[in-house]
Design a protein that fits this description.
By secondary structure, the chain is of the alpha/beta class. It contains 6 helices and 7 strands. The chain has a single domain, classed as NAD(P)-binding Rossmann-like Domain (Rossmann fold), CATH 3.40.50.720. The protein binds NADP nicotinamide-adenine-dinucleotide phosphate. The site of NADP nicotinamide-adenine-dinucleotide phosphate has 27 residues, from helix 1.
Amino acid sequence: MHSVLVTGANRGVGLEFVRQLLRLREPPKHVFAGCRTPEDAMELQRMAKDNQTLLIVKLDVSDETTFAESVEMVDKAVGEKGLAVLINNAGILRLGGTETTTLADMEESYKVNVMGPLAVTQAFLPLLKRAAAKSEINSHHLSIHRAAIINITSALGSLQLCTSSKYIPYRTTKAALHMLTQCMTFDLSPAGILVVALHTGWVRTDMGGKTAILSPKESISGMLNVMRYLTEINAGQALTWEGRILPW
Ligand SMILES: NC(=O)c1ccc[n+]([C@@H]2O[C@H](COP(=O)([O-])OP(=O)(O)OC[C@H]3O[C@@H](n4cnc5c(N)ncnc54)[C@H](OP(=O)(O)O)[C@@H]3O)[C@@H](O)[C@H]2O)c1
């Protein structure tokens, strides 16, 4: 992975991804931390001061007007090597059952959790395709070390594991993200881009809450370990942070 862009990188899972990517034994040459308000992202700013590898880019996944500038910044940094890995991590969790879910929450959840990953992927696709084309890895193979999109998902999006209706906006959007992962796989595999969905586990972040089972450190080190070995057999799959298949 010579370059990685993480969306929603100012806190929670995204911030820990950035932290651990920078500490890898063989770190990427470029780590791009996407966030809505870079001026408020104090921890990212502190990390960027100590590490030239890290570049903070302004990116609101539900606001296309923020895309052009961030694509330009990434393009300029990676040059002809392109962008190797896009981690579509930004997400929101809205509660609600059949009688209580508001259409506003449904709309916002679709914008961030489904349309966001699609739109960000579309914006960075030329750079991802460039990475796939320039890679030294055999052009018949898909690999995280060539070009890849990781869609961060949740077990709450699994139909088979569904035990309650409490989170309709969240569950339905993560289920849709699984389908998006499949559809992207059909379209992008021929261009050499691997697409996989990864479930973080239940993590102690603002979203997961204090009682969650995993620390961000445990979840992300697990996911990075899973990511290291992703190849074409994983195309379109949803996997857990431990590398198990997530039932759809
Ligand atoms: N925590 C868990 O237990 C858990 C479990 C399964 C899956 N996940 C998934 O893991 C991912 C990260 O979750 P988390 O636990 O880190 O949540 P979090 O602590 O609530 O952080 C969410 C991140 O997404 C960003 N974000 C929200 N809307 C955005 C937008 N429109 N554009 C750009 N960034 C936006 C937030 O930025 P702001 O600070 O600007 O709001 C923040 O950086 C999500 O996709 C989530 O569904 C989490």
